[in-house]
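Predicting holo structure, zinc ion bound.
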Amino acid sequence: MKPLTTAEKTDYRQTSTHREVLGFIEELKAQRPVFRVESMGRSAKGQEMPVLVFGERPGTPVVLVLANIHAGEVEGKEALQMLARDLPDKYFEKLTLLFVPDYNPDGNDLIDVKHRALDLKNLEGQIGPEGGVGTRYTGEGINLNRDYMKMEAVESRHLAVLQATWKPHVTIDSHTTDGSVHGFALTYDTSHIPCGPAAYVHSKMLPDVSRRLETRTKLKTFFYGNLVDEADLSRGWATYPHFPRYGSHYRGMSGRMDILLETYSYIPFKDRVFTTVEILKDIFDYTIEHASEIKRLCGEGESARPDPVGIGYGPPQSIGECEITAWDMESQLARRIPGREVCSYRMPHFAKFVASKEVSRPAAYLVPQELVKIIEKQRPGRHPDPDREPGRGLDGTPGDGGDGGPGAGTHHGTRRRCARADRPAAGHAGLLPAGAGERRRPRALGLLRCAAPARCDPPGRPPPQHLISSGNRRRSIPAIRIIK
Ligand SMILES: [Zn+2]
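Done. C-alpha cells:
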C-alpha cells in the first residue's frame, strides 16, 4: 500500500514532524524508485535535510521546490510528499525536479497549537491543522526568508550550495499568508528585481498558470498583495518590499526564475494543501510546454551586465488597475471569511519597483578588514564555523520594511525580536589604512559574493549597507565603491 502523509492519516488534523517526513520518504523510496535522495546537509540541530531528485534527463529544465521555510506554513511540506508519491512518471521525462520537503526541520519540530493560532480580528493565524505547527524561525531563531544576504543560518548556506550545484531554472518557495481579507485561495509573486526572467514570470508565466488552475479546479488566485486600506478598497493592492534578503528577490538577482506561493490562511488546511498540490502541477506543465523559452531567458538573465546599477528603490508603484476578489463590504470590515457575498473590486495594483538611486557598476568595494573576514567566512559552500557564537558575524538587518512600501509590515524582520537582546551591539570595529581592504577580482563585486551568485550582476543589486548595516542600533559600516 502506498504510504500516507501524517496530514492524510489524521484527516488533516496534524502536520508531519521531520522524522515522519524522513519515514515517508524511506517507505516511498522502496515502492516508487523514480527518485533518489540527496542530502543538503544537516540543520543547526543536526537533522538530516533530504532533497528528492526526479528526472535528471540532460537538457530538461531544472525546477526546485522549497517547502516549510517558515515552519508554521506547512502546506508545501505536505504537498511535496503527496506529489512525490502521486505525480505521473511522464513529468520526470520532461523535467528535472528537486523537492526540499522540509527546509526548516528544527523550526518544524517545535510544533505547538499556539503557533499561527487563528485570530481573524487581528488578521493572524490560520485554520488548522488543529494539532499545531512549528515556528516561523529556525531552532536558532533565524528567519530563513530574511537570511539570503547574510547567510547566517547553516540552512541558508546549504541552500546556496544546492542552488549553485543545480542552477535551477525555476525555484518555487511555498508559504502561507494571513495579511488581508480577500477571496483568493492563494496569491503568488516573483522577484521584484526588475530584470528579464522576473518580468517574464510576472507578465506571462504566472497569469497563465493562474488561468490553468482556475479552469481545472475553479480556484481563484492572483498576485500577492495586501489592501492598502481595508475601509476603502479603491486605494489599492500592494505587494511586499523588494529587498534581496527575501529569497525571491535574491534568486531574481541571479537571473533565474522564481515563484513565491502564498496559500491563504483562512481557507481550511486540507484546501490549502490541495491548492498547493494543484498549482505546482500547473507550474510543472507550463515549464514543460515552455522549456526552451525558459532556458533561453535564464541564459540571457545570467549573462546580463546592466550598468548603472539600481541601489535604492522607493515604495512599489502602480502597474495599472487590478481586480481583487473579496467579499461584500460588511463582511470585509467585520473580517468575516468566507463573507456573505463574493464581490470584485477594481483598484490600483502597486507592484513595480523603480530605482530611485543608481550608481555605476563598481569594480570592487573598499570595506573594513573585519568585514572582509566575515564575508569570506560566509561565502556559500563553506561549512559553518563551529566556533562562531550564535548571533555573531554579519548580524545586521536593514530596517523592517526599509523604505516603507505599503507592503512593509511586522513580519519582515530577520530574527525573532527576543533573540536580539543577547546579541553584540557592534562587532566590527576599525577601518584599515586606506587601500588595505581593497580587492580587485575579474568579476566586479567579487567581495560581495555572499550577497548574490557571482555570475549575476543585475540592476537591483543592493548597496553594501544591506549586508552590513546593523546590530541593535542598526549601525552602518562604511563601504566605498571603487569605480574603474
Ligand atoms: Zn512565509
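Residues 380-413, 415-475 have pLDDT under 50 and may be disordered.
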